[in-house]
Each structure stands twice: as C-alpha cells, then as structure tokens.
C-alpha cells in the first residue's frame, strides 16, 4: 500500500485573496463546481493541465508558522486509518487526530516525517464519496 499527494496545503490569513493571486501567477482555476468566494476559509485551485492542486487554508495565528506548507496525502488503496498505522510503523510521528471533525466519517490525521515536516492523511477516494 502507498499514498499519493492529494494536494499541497498553504496556511494563510486570507485564503480567497491568496488563491486569486496564485491563479493569476500560475494560470490555474477553481475546482469545477466549487468556486472560491470572498470569505471562504479554504480555497482550492487546480492546474488544468496536470491536475495538481493547491489548498489555501486560513489559520487564526497572528504570526504564521515557519512551516506553512504541507502535503495532504491519501491512500491509493486501503483506508485512511490503515494508512495512518502503516505510516506510524514506517517511522512517522503522531501529531493530531482530526477524525470526525465535520461529523462521522470525515476528517484527517496529522503526522510528521522523521524531520518534523507535517502531513495530513486524508480518507481514500471511496471513503470520501461513500462508495
């Protein structure tokens, strides 16, 4: 079992403004059917050619952390919880559990690599769509 990078997350103070700025720089666009709007706390943009995605997410901290960018990964096969266990056995460190944060069957688990770089482990595609 392995994971793939679902998207790269950037902590910020104004997700909408920053996502609009990067759209202009990169020529990327909002996700189809999920437009970013002023006031949104999370804004995703996507490269129309490669499908790469950036997620801008607002954090309440007055001072942004030094490590503002992290990967969100999802298992290619198997469940989020099985992937968390595999990564912990592989040497990752547990940071925080956000499973169920938006209701049953939602959320993620935050882990860190051996140098302390954080990543969020998401549910797999089937878990997200309920199939």
Q: What features would you describe in this structure?
A:
This protein is α+β, with helices and mostly antiparallel strands and 131 residues long. It has one domain (3-129): Roll (2,3-Dihydroxybiphenyl 1,2-Dioxygenase, domain 1). Helix content is 21%, strand content 33%. The chain has three helices and eight strands, in the order βαββββαβββα. It has helices at residues 15-26, 80-89, 125-129; strands at 3-12, 29-30, 42-46, 53-58, 69-75, 93-97, 109-112, 118-121. The chain has an eight-stranded mixed β-sheet. The radius of gyration is 15 Å and the shape is globular. The mean pLDDT is 90.
Counted up, domains total: 1
N/C terminus separation: 19 Å
Helix content: 10-25%
Task: Tell me what the CATH architecture is.
Answer: Roll
Order of helices and strands: EHEEEEHEEEH
CATH class, anyone? Alpha Beta
How much is the radius of gyration in Å?
Answer: 15 Å
Describe the largest sheet.
Answer: 8 strands, mixed
The 3D shape can be described as globular
Strand order in the largest sheet: 2-3-4-1-5-8-7-6
Corresponding CATH superfamily: 2,3-Dihydroxybiphenyl 1,2-Dioxygenase, domain 1
Q: DSSP helix count?
A: 3
Annotation, overall tally of beta strands: 8
Task: Give the oligomeric state.
Answer: single chain
């Amino acid at each position: 079992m392995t994971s793939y990078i679902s998207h790269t997350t950037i902590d910020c103070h104004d997700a909408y403004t920053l996502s609009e700025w990067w759209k202009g720089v990169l020529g990327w666009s909002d996700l189809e059917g999920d437009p970013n709007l002023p006031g949104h706390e999370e804004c995703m943009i996507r490269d129309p050619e490669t499908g790469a995605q950036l997620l801008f997410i607002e954090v309440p901290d007055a001072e942004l952390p030094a490590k503002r960018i992290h990967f969100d990964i999802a298992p290619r096969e198997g469940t989020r919880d099985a992937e968390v266990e595999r990564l912990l056995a592989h040497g990752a460190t547990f940071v925080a559990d956000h499973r169920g944060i938006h209701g049953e069957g939602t959320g993620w688990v935050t882990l860190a690599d051996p140098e302390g770089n954080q990543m969020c482990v998401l549910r797999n595609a089937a878990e997200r769509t309920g199939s």
